[in-house]
Design goal:
Structural class: mainly alpha
InterPro entries: HTH_MarR-typ, MarR/SlyA-like, WH-like_DNA-bd_sf, WH_DNA-bd_sf
Number of domains: 1
Order of helices and strands: HHEHHEEHH
CATH architecture: Orthogonal Bundle
Radius of gyration: 20 Å
Distance between the termini: 35 Å
Organism: Actinoallomurus oryzae
Strand content: 5-15%
Pfam families: MarR (PF01047)
CATH topology: Arc Repressor Mutant, subunit A
CATH superfamily: Winged helix-like DNA-binding domain superfamily/Winged helix DNA-binding domain
Protein name: HTH marR-type domain-containing protein
Strand order of the largest sheet: 1-3-2
Oligomer: single chain
Helix content: 40-55%
Largest sheet: 3 strands, antiparallel
Number of strands: 3
CATH class: Mainly Alpha
Number of helices: 6
Length: about 170
């Protein structure tokens, strides 16, 4: 007969800490690999973050970008200047307020963003070592960790995941 392990708040806290450390270390390692793999596209880590947060077809005011990227306006100007010099974004006038500048991905920026996303969203090889049942369990649990992003945050080139496809 299996012995039930007694569980208390201290054991739960320790278990949560161990899980979080393992996940965090895993994602940091993967992030470093991703940064190295996208360097061939000529984008820095900051450029990459900005590029991934700009949704194709959306015109974002500079102030909104500062809020989204959690930085000050001068940093947004510096990043947008760099992306604009690379031909990845364009500054345009706001449709109702000429004092406001909006940023939009250029055709080149959309293409590069798609290439980078395809590379970043390629599952790590270690997932191939998991059984189908483990993958289904991980899928279910990971869905509980982060609720689905609202439609407004999902980019036009990012269809919602269909869990039945697993």
């Amino acid at each position: 007969m299996a012995v039930m392990e007694e569980r208390g708040p201290d054991q739960d806290e320790q278990l949560k800490a161990e899980i979080w450390k393992a996940l965090y270390d895993f994602f940091l390692d993967e992030h470093e690999l991703h940064l190295a793999s996208v360097a061939e596209f000529g984008v820095s880590a900051g450029d990459l973050k900005a590029l991934m947060r700009l949704a194709p077809g959306r015109r974002e005011p500079m102030r909104a970008l500062a809020d989204m990227w959690r930085c000050d306006a001068s940093t947004v100007t510096w990043i947008v200047d760099r992306l604009e010099k690379q031909g990845l974004v364009e500054r345009q006038a706001h449709e109702t307020d000429r004092r406001v500048k909006v940023v939009v991905l250029s055709d080149r920026g959309r293409r590069l963003r798609t290439q980078v996303r395809n590379r970043l969203y390629r599952p790590p090889a270690v997932l191939s070592e998991l059984s189908h049942d483990d993958l289904r369990t991980l899928h279910r649990l990971s869905g509980q960790l982060r609720p689905e992003a609202p439609d407004a945050e999902r980019s036009n080139d990012e269809p919602p995941a269909d869990p039945r496809a697993l």
